[in-house]
Amino acid sequence: DEKAIPYKRCGKLIVATNEEEVSRLDALYQIGLKNKVPGLALVDRQQILEIEPYCTGGLMAIHSPNTGIVDWKRVACSYGDDFMAGGGTILTGREVDTIKDVGKEIRVNCKDKSRITAKHVITCAGLYSDRVAAKAGGKSSPTIVPFRGEYLELRPEKRYLVRGNIYPVPNPKFPFLGVHYTPRMDGSIWLGPNAVLAGSREGYSRS
Hints:
Strand order of the largest sheet: 3-4-2-11
Helix content: 10-25%
Low-confidence stretches: none
Oligomer: single chain
Distance between the termini: 41 Å
Strand content: 15-25%
Largest sheet: 4 strands, mixed
Mean pLDDT: 94
Structural class: alpha+beta
């Protein structure tokens, strides 16, 4: 609200569809209570249908009414505006070559032959975070194995089927959130993601 960034508080259901998932759901609910998640509640089959009329396969669910959605690009840009307003400079298109601590300062040498000096450096490089961490003197493991998540989009005439976020109970056998329904700020509804082993770190396309 302070930054006038639009958002929608559409809520979220984490839905158990069998008895094994119900037991895991309760454990997840207890974690939410310990973390003092506001408004969190366990709901039964009938309550699920009151919240999401077309979610017919659920036995029990966690309902988080305060979960919302936002355009994260706008959030990131707002952080950038705050940083620059505080005297910071944002540089893009600079591929890091080496990071050296020379005592009084840290030198970040880029492949375009430019250099950035600072008292402190925080590396946060997404899919390249392992490589950049190694350049900063960190461990070379673990190594990132890139996976690509692919989504489907509901047809506009089917958007009425989903009101808020609908998630499965996390499966501890897999390090993924699972396929879920996600409303978007533009009104669209995404279904996904799957997890496809990508051929490269920036292998965003299917080809």
